[in-house]
Amino acid sequence: MTFKTTMKNRFTFRFLAAATTLLLTASCQKVITLDLTETAPRLTIEGNLADDGQPCTVLLSRSVSYTDTNVFPAVSGAVVTLSTDAGGLETLRETSTPGQYRGSTILGQPGRRYTLRVEADGQAYVAASTLPSPVVPLTGLHAQKAAIGTNIQAVPEYLDPAGPRNYYLFRQYRNGLLNKSIYLQNDEFTDGKANVRGLGVGGGPNSGTDADKLATGDSLRVDMQNVDADVYEYFRTLNLALQGGGMATASPSNPKSNFTGNVLGYFSAHSVRHRTVLVPVL
User: Fold this and answer.
1) What pLDDT, in 10s, does the model give residues 203-245?
2) Taking the CB of residue 62, how many other CB atoms lie within 10 A of it?
């Protein structure tokens, strides 16, 4: 969803790394600051459901103006429900952390479609996401030198299944620290082929620091998510916003949410797999 006004605001999305648990239950918190065009604070929804045996977790907060401090008010007292195409339905309860809601019974299963409904401030917002099937395994991970220069990049090893379009989101850790960059791949030109594409070299426009650059002896971990088309589009447009909108865009716009209504954020039902290696001498 894109908003265009004359007042420049800033809001922060908090992303929690997807490890063997949900993005929201991992130990590293991701903070991304965007300079966006927005007239007033908006509800921000971050919902995640993985196939790791953990229930759905949702974070509700509000965006703030660039003139405010970077404290993003939690939204308590909302009614949050999750349903499945198999007939399951549950209400997510707010935890001891204000603005965090957690399910208990519905778990992520490949091939199922999930619908998240959030009622707040007298309005209802709905998003649906399908957990892709079959889940594409992350069969290996290695590091290699970039084609140009001496930088090192991670290469996730997986075999893309031929046929339907597949979408992938990757998160990278160097020595246990989450790289701020968001890496995306799809099979538009690699359908049915083994992946040979690297994730980048760190220190790029999304990372903001050379501390993400890999070096010999580093512990390298990569998390791989199979996501659906709408979630991929959200993160693709988020990357564009982080990079300033690209050459053809005068100013960055808000990421394209899969929620109905005038809100920010996303709901993602996805798989999660991870691999860890030591970076060798290259």
Assistant:
1) 444 444 678 899 999 999 999 999 999 999 999 999 888 776 4
2) 18
From residue 253, how far is each of 9, 10, 220, 257, 265 by CA, in Å?
11, 11, 32, 12, 13
| CA angle centred on 57, ends 32 and 81, rounded to 5° | 125
Q: Break the chain into its structural domains and give their ranges.
A: 8-132+229-273, 140-227
Average pLDDT of the chain, as a whole number:
83
Name residue 175's amino acid: N
Q: Which of 185, 215, 225 is nearest to 15 (CA)?
A: 225
Q: Which two tokens stand for residue 101?
A: 């809601």
Q: How far is CA 222 from CA 79, 157, 185, in A?
A: 34, 10, 14
Q: Which residues share a beta bridge with 142?
A: 155
> What is d(CA 114, CA 92) in angstroms, rounded to the nearest whole number?
14
Tell me the per-residue pLDDT of 39-80, one tens digit each, with 9 for 90 and over.
Answer: 578 899 999 999 999 999 999 999 876 555 567 799 999 999
Helix (H, G, I), strand (E, B) or coil at 46: strand
Tokens of 129: 């996401």
pLDDT tens, 16-49? 333 323 333 333 344 444 555 555 788 999 999 9
Cβ atoms 187, 217 nearer than 8 A: no
Stated length of the chain: 282
- Torsion angle in degrees (nearest 10) through CA of 111, 231, 104, 109: 10
- Calpha distance 65→9 (Å, rounded): 5
**Coil, helix or strand at residue 103:** strand
pTM of the model: 0.82
| pLDDT at residue 15 is higher than 80 | no
